[in-house]
Write the C-alpha cells for this entry.
Amino acid sequence: MDAIVIGAGFSGLYMLHRLRELGLSVRVLEAAAGVGGTWYWNRYPGVRCDVESIDYSYSFDEQLEQEWQWSERYAPQAEILRYIEHVADRFDLRRDIQLNTKVTAARWDEERDLWSIWTEQDECYEATWMITAVGCLSAVNAPSFPGLDTFRGDTYTTARWPHEGVDFSGRRVAVIGTGSTGVQAIPEIAKQAEHVHVFQRSPNFSVPARNQPLDEDYVAAIKRDYRARRRAAREAGWGVPVDRPLRPLDDFNPQERVAVCDAGWRKGGAPGLLRAFSDTLTNPEANRVVAEFVRNKIRNTVRDPAVAERLVPTDHPLGAKRLCVDTDYYETYNRPNVTLVDISGSPITEMTPTGIRTRNGEYEVDAIVFALGFDAITGALTAIDIRGAGGESLREHWRDGPRAYLGLAVAGFPNMFTITGPGSPSVLGNVIVSIEQHIDWISRCLTYLREHGVSRFEATAAAETSWVAHVAEVASGTLFVSAKSWFIGANIAGKPRTFMPYAGGVPTYRKICDDVAKRGYEGFVLGESDSLTHSAA
Ligand code: NA7
C-alpha cells in the first residue's frame, strides 16, 4: 500500500478520506469489531462527550454538517457512534477498513524505504507511509489490585463496557475512579443500583453540563452560517468558539468576578468556567477565584458537610486536570443509596471474594466498576513495538518522556505521522479541530513530497529537541504543570512525568505548522531513496 493508517476512529476515517482524494492506496487497520475508536469502546452508563456536539463533529464537508441532526447539546455515545458510522457509509470508507485487526509491531525497512506492519494474526503489510490514528485516550489503565481474581462478583471496565449493557438493579456496586468517566457514570448507576460505594482517591472539579435537547431554531441559525462557527472554533485557543471577548481577572471587581463565574455555571459546560477570565489557567489568583466559586457550589449542593468537604478538590488548580462535565454528580451524594469512600489516606489494599478491602475496613459488593482512566496520549503508541531507522524502538526513544517534532513526527522514524501525537494540542480542548488540522497538514505535506519526488521524510533530531523544549517552556507558563494529571503521565506508575500536549493554543500551533510547511518543511529531512534531495535545519 501507499499508506497504512492505524485506527478507525475520528482520525482514521478522515485520514482515509483525504488519502483517497490524493489517489493513494490505503488500508486502515482497526483492532475493534467496528469503527468509532473511543466511541466504539466507551459504552458505560451516562457516557457523553464533554464538548458540544455542534462543535465536536467534522467540519470538512459542508453537506455532511448540514444533513446531520444532533439531538442534544452533548450527544450520548450511541448517537456519536451513529454519526461516525454514517460518515463511514456516506464516504464509502468501509471497503478500505479492516476490522478485528490489532497492530502489534512495525519496522522501518532501511533498504526499501517502507514500513512493515504486523498484526496480531501475524499478517504483514508493507507501506511507504505509516500514519497512527490510535487516539489519545484508548489504552486502558487496567486494574491491577491484589486479589482481583478472587472476587466472586462481576467486574466491569468503563472503557470496555459490554455492548448489551448491564443491569445493576438490586445490586451493591462499587465504582473506583472519579475522573470524567466516573463523574458521568456514578449518577446513572446510582439510579439503578441498590447501593453504590464510590471509591475516591482524589476529588476532581466538575461543572454542570446543562445538557438539553437542541432547539431547532438554534441549530438552524448555526447551520445558516456553519462556516463562521467552524472558523471561530479554529481561531479559539481550545477549538471551541468563544461567546464573548475574554478579559483578565484584574479587569473585574469582586462582584463582577462572581457574576462572570455564575454566568458560566448557569450556562453549563467547561468553557464557561475555564474561560471565566483570560488568565484562569495562567494566573493563580484568577484560578483561585474560579476554583473557590466551584468549591462553594459543591458545599451548597451536597447536604452532608463532611461528604461535601471530601468532594472539594484542594490539591490542584481548576482545569489543571481536565475539568469534568456532569449531570447531577454532586446531587447524587444526597441519595440515601450512595456512600463516598475516601481512600486518599486509606488506599485499597486488596479485593476479597466478597468485596474491597481498604486500610480502614472491608466493603461488601456484588459488582465493581473500574473507571481508572487511560495511559493517555502515548499508551496506544508504545503498546505497538515500533522500530525506526537502525532498529531503534519508539519505547526506548520515549524512555524519558515522549519526543516528537510538532507532535506529528519522530526523529529516527521516517515516513511516520502521529495524528494528535505528544507535543500537539490534542486533548486540550476540542480534539476534532486538532484532528482535522493534523490531517489537512499531513495531506498537504504528502502532496508536496509527491510533487518533489520525495520518498523518505524524517524529522531531524535538532528540530525534535527544540520542539520538546518549546512544549515544556509553554507548559511552564501555565497552571497545568502543577497537577498530578494524566496530561503529565502522573496516573500511570513508572511513566515519565512530562507535560505531553502543546499548551500554546490551537491557532498558534496551526500557524507554526503552516510556517514549517511554507519554509519547505523546515526541520525535516526530505530524501529520495538513499540520496537526499533537500535538507532543512
Ligand atoms: P481519569 O481522569 O484519569 O480518572 C481516573 C480516576 O481513577 C481518577 O479518579 C483516579 O484517581 C482513579 N484511579 C486510578 N487508579 C486508581 C487506583 N489504583 N485506585 C483508586 N483510584 C484510582 O480518567 P477518566 O476515564 O475519568 O477520564 C479520562 C478522559 O477521558 C477525560 O478527561 C475526558 O477527556 C475523556 P486520581 O485522580 O489519580 O487520584
